Amino acid sequence: MQSIHGKKLIAVAGKEVFGKKFINVVNSEIGDLGLMMIGININEDDFNFFISNLAHSKVEVTIFMPEYQKEAAKHFGLEGVLLMSYKDGDMKFITADEVTPIDDRKLLALAKRIG
Can you tell me whether residue 98 is helix, strand or coil? Predict the structure, then answer.
């Protein structure tokens, strides 16, 4: 497992994520679990590059905002939508049947699943 500052890195990937206040709220709740969440703004042109490199990045967990959930599932050949990918030897996935809004409660619940 790779870590940043001794913590497992969780990326929240979307079009306008960086600076979202709910990431700071969730970080205050998950710090004791050895987790650190960051927002990554990705435009549509860069999404394929980003997702193609997930397996080799320092990011251990990626939570996808609604705008990329369908595209992420397609990339990995999954049914439904992809809420979260994480490394556990191989890449593992948490999916849903439909696009799911991501707020602070949903972020916290997903982070605690891997924490």
Answer: coil
What length is written for the chain?
Answer: 115
CA distances from 5 to 37, 55, 63, 83, 94 (A): 12, 20, 20, 25, 26
Strand partners, 57: none
Lowest mean pLDDT across 4-13, 32-41, 68-77: 4-13
Domain region containing 57 = 8-114
More confident residue, 48 or 4: 48
Q: Are 111 and 105 in contact (CB under 8 A)?
A: no
Q: Domain for residue 1, yes or no? A: no
Q: What is the value of pTM for the model shown? A: 0.91
Residue 23 falls within a domain, yes or no? yes
Distance CA 26, CA 86 (A): 18
pLDDT at 3: 55
